[in-house]
Amino acid sequence: MRLSDISNGAAFSVRQVTLKKEVGKRLADMGFTEGTTGQVVRKGFLRGPIQVRIRGYDILIRRYEAAGIEVEGTDAAEPEAL
Questions:
Q1: Residues of the domain holding 51
Q2: Is 81 within a domain?
């Protein structure tokens, strides 16, 4: 499943980032690494950016970036904080 497919408020665990080059490296630097948990806070109107809480901070990422992140849903109420 892709991060762009997760609904608002859902928790997830990152499986892998499939984007290459600078975008993939930047996402990894922001905490999107294998096994990291997070939560979708909200999705922008009309396919806008997605607000994600990961490693204790909130970030906004573009939909195409979120589509390049493979995740699996989790039942965790709180994502891990670093």
A1: 3-73
A2: no
